[in-house]
Design brief:
Blueprint lengths: L20 E7 L5 E8 L2 H46 L4 H21 L3 H28 L7 H9 L5 H12 L1 H21 L5 H30 L1 H8 L5 H6 L1 H32 L6 H4 L7 E4 L2 E4 L1
Antiparallel strand pairs: 1-2, 3-4
Length: 315
Amino acid sequence: RTLLEIVPAPGQPDLRVGENIRMLRQESVTGQTVYGFEDYSRGWALVLVAAVFAIVIVVVARGRGLRALIGIGVAFAVLVFFTLPALLDGKSAVPVALVTGSLILYAVLYLAHGFSLRTSSALLGTLLSMALAAVLSWVTIEITHLTGLSEEQNTNIQTYMQHVSITGLLLAGFIIGSLGVLNDVTITQASSAFELATLDPDASRREIFTSAMRVGRDHIASTVYTLVLAYAGGALPLLLLFSTAGRSIHDVLTSDAVAIEIARSAVGGIALALSVPLTTGIAVLLARPMGSGRRSNAPVEDAPVRRSGGGRHAR
């Protein structure tokens, strides 16, 4: 048994008997072993939360939900066994992030939605949108001079792993972070275009594109809110800290930490908005191949003429 004494102070954990914690072991200057509180042990609690999440997804979405969970596992494996080792080796962040995103998208989309032209159109639209997000991220980081050093983790990386580019790490985070929202929008647009083409075989490409874009505009409006509010929620403690420091709103918004969240939201929003017409156009081309519509290819027939009463009427 080890007795751990914690002096009551602001920010100290409220420990109770029976709780599992992680302790930090150190040697004092006198050679005495000293233990300190490091963190809570959350292993089983996280396993329980993850298990409930998986059960709910499988119960509601059934087979497709199970395949989506497998896709998440593949995505995690790509990050752990490819992305992190490549970045630790000092590889360029943009190629690493693009390859990571491509591998994740192939696994997630085809596992969750199956092999079809619909899924392929969503994949192609997402890949092009991700490449666009990479360019936008690089330009944004360059013109705003974002360093990423406002975050403690990045400062530690710069101190202990000097061969790793913090700016590159920030750029990779921008690119990979955009995958989730892009995937959501592109698969919806592809499904809308294919469903519209199926429901109205006579509809032209222009009509299908116009109708699908109406759905896309609604999706953009709702998803942009989600995107911005998610980043704002993550930066809420930081905004609260700045507000109590007596700094002006200009200083707060242009600080490196807040500017990163603003830039990430802006890049994600631009890539999101442009992915809608891009994916819709690709899906329309695949759903309605050239010359497949009956409206433009239907032969024109002469209407028979018959007599009725005292005059001639075309039927």
